[in-house]
Prior knowledge:
Elements: H1 2-18, E1 24-28, E2 40-47, E3 53-60, E4 66-68, E5 71-76, E6 81-89, E7 99-107, E8 110-118, E9 122-123, E10 143-147, E11 150-158, E12 162-170, E13 185-192, E14 208-214, E15 221-227, E16 251-257, E17 260-268, E18 282-291, E19 296-299, H2 300-303, E20 335-338
Parallel strand pairs: 9-20
Antiparallel strand pairs: 1-2, 2-6, 3-5, 3-7, 4-6, 7-8, 10-11, 11-12, 12-17, 13-14, 13-18, 14-15, 16-17, 18-19, 18-20
Amino acid sequence: MLRQILFVLVALLPTAAAHVEAPLAMRITNLPVTPAHMPAVKVWVKNTAKSPYQGKLTLELPDGWKLSPTSQDLSLQPSETTCLSFTVHDGATREDNHYTVTAVATAAGREICHTQEIVCASAPYFKPTIDGRRDDWKDAIPATFVTDGKKTTISTLWNRRQFSLLIAVEEDELIPQREAHPFDAVQIAISPQDTKTSTDAKGEATRFEFLLVSGGAGQGGKCYLLCQPSNTLADLQTERDLNSLEQENPKLAVWREGNTTYYEWGVSFRSLAGIRPSEGREFFLSILVHDPDGAGLRDWGQAAGLWPCQRNRLAWSNWPGAHWPETPPTDNKVEWGMCSSKY
């Protein structure tokens, strides 16, 4: 009997240890320029424990990549969050634009590891013609994420006057805009790098937000300006009349190729106060894809590794036709950059 009791206790030990939560939450940001252009890899770290954390942080990168510095001291009070930056040397660009990086925090002989697949999230310099063709986009840097088995690919370009996006949404069917029923759409939030989203409904928005929809076969697309920085967050949660928010003569093309819907869109930098077009500029670009009959809500912020505590319903405007899940989407502050070229 004693042997049986000891056996049970020993068998339970690994299970109990597996439920011990790590005292740190970590997130690795996407690259603002291609690996060959010496980007900074930033790691956000939050101390989730009730005691201070003292240790070191190192990164494990793809083979051949080098970092400066090779490690950094990590000192956090309870609930404190910090961001550590490392510069990449000898990085090599991958055609699929996916890079596996592991952050390792070490303290008192204990390692806490966080592995994340990141991308180069950057817009090369070029001005495409918004005409419903993909010929102009061969020099962009596509960033792809998968939701419920369906791909969404974001490509961006910039020049002195215009910021351009091509969003490819893999879906079985495109549901155009319709009254009193959910429909497919792409919701885009753009904001300056130094802005934050309030958790108080009385606060003001810090973003520009647009909605791109299809008008159906042969009817092109429509663009709605859902939000400007002067708007109050509480007002953005009401279902306003979209007709009053429609942009006149937008640079927008929406079309289908096989099982993929393409949204090609250009917006003037004059319409994006606070975001200056220049090489090396960093800002926030976040995207929600509404696919009510398929993968549901596709959240680029979630794919980019934003923490569960960064979910914020006030970060996105409500609109008639939107179908929101019970869990709110992540914040609209996902890092993006502008570069000279992907080469």
